[in-house]
Design goal:
By secondary structure, the protein is an alpha+beta fold. Helices cover 20% and strands 28% of the residues.
């Protein structure tokens, strides 16, 4: 008999629950059950025969894939639910008509472009460390910025024992008491830009993501979302070739 089982995290991503990486977190936290039993990393499921739940809710196949961009305001956490009761980006997309989840993260005090979808495979390709997807940020820092600080930021900063990849950083605007920097980075480590700036003595006053893989936030108002158009979807889909489940 043919074995139709696939990895649990892949099944969750294909059902639009979360990207594979986030699905692995949910499994590790004990939020996922298979046939009434708490699942473990490494479990496999038969998508047709096995009953899978996340936080007590049944998981079912996605009928139609949805892709949107959200202009995330400051003060919202990039999760679909929060045990501390904080405002979540899910609050801003309740009228999408189907469940979508964020691709990657923006920390609570950051704002800007957030792509959301129920396509777990695309999310996995865009967020996987090997993809090196370009992301552009407009970062306002206190005071002026020296050439030496710019050079260090571009070359790479050691964070948590590992150096960041080389990136592009340049001055977008100078004001009397602050400087606007444009960052173009190719990875997505936790609070990366804030930690990079802190390492060279710069205080971040405002951080806004404006572009991902050629898809631009544009004039979308804060707290609002819109569907991605065909051209934007082609850009995202062509960023990296589809990775196979090992």
């Amino acid at each position: 008999m043919k074995d139709n089982k696939i990895r649990l995290q892949k099944h969750l991503s294909e059902c639009g629950v979360a990207s594979r990486r986030k699905a692995e977190e949910l499994i590790s936290l004990g939020k996922v059950k298979v046939n009434g039993h708490i699942a473990s990393l490494g479990d496999k499921v038969d998508p047709v025969r096995d009953k899978v739940t996340v936080r007590g809710k049944n998981v079912s196949a996605v009928n139609e894939k949805v892709y949107i961009m959200l202009h995330k305001p400051r003060g919202f956490v990039t999760t679909m639910s929060d045990e501390e009761g904080r405002k979540c980006v899910s609050d801003l997309v309740k009228d999408v008509g189907t469940r979508v989840f964020p691709v990657g993260r923006l920390d609570r005090n950051s704002e800007g472009l957030l792509i959301m979808t129920n396509d777990g495979e695309l999310a996995n390709r865009l967020t996987h460390p090997s993809s090196h997807v370009n992301k552009t940020y407009r970062v306002t820092v206190d005071g002026s910025v020296t050439d030496e600080q710019l050079s260090r930021l571009c070359t790479g900063i050691e964070i948590d024992g590992r150096k960041t990849l080389p990136c592009d950083v340049f001055i977008g605007e100078k004001k009397t008491d602050r400087t606007v920097l444009i960052f173009i980075i190719h990875e997505g480590r936790n609070r990366q830009i804030r930690k990079m700036c802190e390492a060279v003595g710069l205080e971040v006053l405002r951080l806004k993501r404006t572009e991902i893989a050629g898809v631009k936030l544009g004039m979308l108002p804060q707290g609002k979302w819109r569907d991605l158009n065909e051209r934007e979807l082609r850009r995202l889909s062509s960023v990296t070739q589809e990775r196979k489940d090992g």
